[in-house]
Design a protein that fits this description.
Blueprint lengths: L5 E4 L2 E4 L5 E5 L7 H14 L3 E5 L3 H13 L4 E4 L4 H9 L4 E4 L7 H14 L3 E6 L8 H6 L1 H18 L5 E6 L3 H14 L4 E3 L7 H17 L5 E3 L7 H14 L8 E4 L10 H12 L7 E5 L14 E4 L4 E6 L2 E7 L3 H14 L8 H14 L7 H25 L1 H9 L1
Parallel strand pairs: 3-4, 3-10, 4-5, 5-6, 6-7, 7-8, 8-9, 9-10, 11-12, 12-13
Antiparallel strand pairs: 1-2, 13-14, 14-15
Helix pairs in contact: 1-9, 3-4, 6-7, 7-8, 8-9, 13-14
The structure holds iron/sulfur cluster.
């Protein structure tokens, strides 16, 4: 269930049923205005809804003033330890400030920041990290880390409520995937505020993406989480954004750009599918519509599982085939498959998103498919034919039975 409350971060709604927002964090020194803006533009292009910048020094606040004006997406100032920087970031126009009340220097300093946020109408992200829990919860952290995290988060929420402030979202960060899942499940039942999800220090692009997909995906599939950040050890923040989108797209929570489907390949493969998939993926980045493109390594199952794809290719040793929504379009030499696939996609756009079929080429492709698919494979067509055949046989048997014994036949037909 989405959070009950909703906040507005520079025009991006978080929680209360709004689409799950994608966040990332710049990896540049914020004071390096040129590099930071360049990275913000790249992450915005990759689909980030919101970006966060670290503000550890005075010169970063100075840069922040310009960044918030030039950024195409809302900017969150990320503050640790120094409440003065939080106050200055709010004054600099940050669309939201992230702080962990536990490390900002005591309740009075938190209250000062919250008073300023209230005055300016700026939302705050309050959080707790497994690595920096308040002292009184450190023992509990060893025996019950989930309870420790949730307790710290609830105490933080109570602190905000005590300050008569409700314009905030909450995050609980842990490096442990099971703890992230368990803690957010518990917290989502206890508070009505939007939740920011992330597995902190998730790791490299490979392991971090998987950990995040498992942890965040599990929560998002349950409807928990209003905004996400994938933390990856890469300087390229746009990679985090791409992973976040893949998670949201996989769960059908949001749509953005094409969806690529590719078979895992096996011993039947007779062409360099790795390169074809990489090339198709690269070229699809230029398209914005959520078209589904499928790549099959062979025609063993006919078009099979990819018949719902808007466009697809099936390869073989020398020739392959291009199809659309289960219908063959044309056969082409393997080396031209990718170019011809994109030629068909572009033709579809040119025809107002209608598939253009050349009947002769389509017939040739259908013939090629019939010759190349495995005669023993259970294609959907063969399954349908088998089921129809079975139904016919049963009807014939019922008719014969009814003829031999009219009463039993009636019973049989009713059954
Ligand atoms: S489509 Fe062909 S190559 Fe790909 S996994 Fe299936 S049988 Fe193997």
């Amino acid at each position: 269930m989405a959070s009950e409350r909703q906040i507005d971060v520079g025009g991006v709604l978080i929680g209360g049923g709004a689409p799950v927002a994608v966040q990332t964090m710049t990896k540049t020194e914020t004071a390096n205005l040129e590099a930071t803006m360049e990275q913000i533009r790249r992450v915005a292009e990759a689909g980030a809804d919101i970006v966060r910048c670290a503000v550890p020094r005075e010169q970063d606040v100075e840069a922040l003033r310009t960044i918030v004006k030039q950024s195409p997406i809302p900017v969150i100032a990320d503050i640790h330890f120094n409440h003065t920087l939080a106050l200055k970031s709010l004054e600099a126009g940050a669309h939201c400030v992230r702080l962990n009340p536990g490390n900002i220097g005591g309740p009075e300093k938190v209250a000062e920041v919250i008073a300023k946020a209230k005055q300016l109408g700026t939302p705050i992200r309050v959080g707790v990290n497994s690595g920096s829990l308040p002292r009184h919860l450190r023992e509990l952290e060893f025996t019950d880390p989930v309870k420790a995290l949730v307790t710290a988060a609830v105490e933080t929420v109570e602190l905000m409520e005590g300050l008569d402030f409700d314009n905030f979202k909450v995050s609980m960060k842990s490096t442990s995937v099971p703890n992230t899942i368990a803690a957010n499940r518990l917290l989502s039942q206890r508070i009505p505020y939007p939740l920011h999800l992330g597995v902190t220090e998730a790791g490299t692009k490979w392991s971090g993406s998987l950990k995040s997909a498992v942890g965040l995906g599990t929560l998002l599939a349950d409807g928990i989480g209003d905004t996400i950040r994938i933390s990856l050890s890469t300087f390229h923040a746009e990679e985090e954004v791409k992973v976040a989108w893949e998670i949201l797209k996989a769960l059908k929570l949001r749509e953005r750009g094409p969806v690529l489907i590719a078979c895992p390949t096996c011993g039947r493969l007779q062409f360099d599918m790795d390169s074809v998939v990489a090339e198709v993926e690269r070229r699809l980045e230029a398209y914005e519509d959520p078209i589904e493109v499928s790549i099959l390594g062979c025609a063993v199952n006919g078009i099979g599982e990819a018949r719902h794809a808007d466009f697809g290719i099936t390869g073989a040793k020398d020739m392959g085939m291009i199809y659309s929504r289960g219908e063959p379009l044309k056969k082409v030499p393997t080396e031209d498959l990718v170019d011809e696939l994109f030629a068909e996609i572009d033709r579809w756009y040119a025809a107002g998103k209608n598939v253009v079929v050349d009947e002769r080429a389509a017939a040739e492709a259908a013939e090629w498919l019939a010759e190349n698919e495995d005669a023993t494979a259970m294609t959907p067509e063969r399954l349908a034919a088998l089921e129809a055949e079975k139904a016919r046989e049963e009807a014939d048997r019922a008719a014969e039975f009814a003829e031999a014994s009219p009463t039993a036949g009636r019973r049989f037909q009713r059954a």
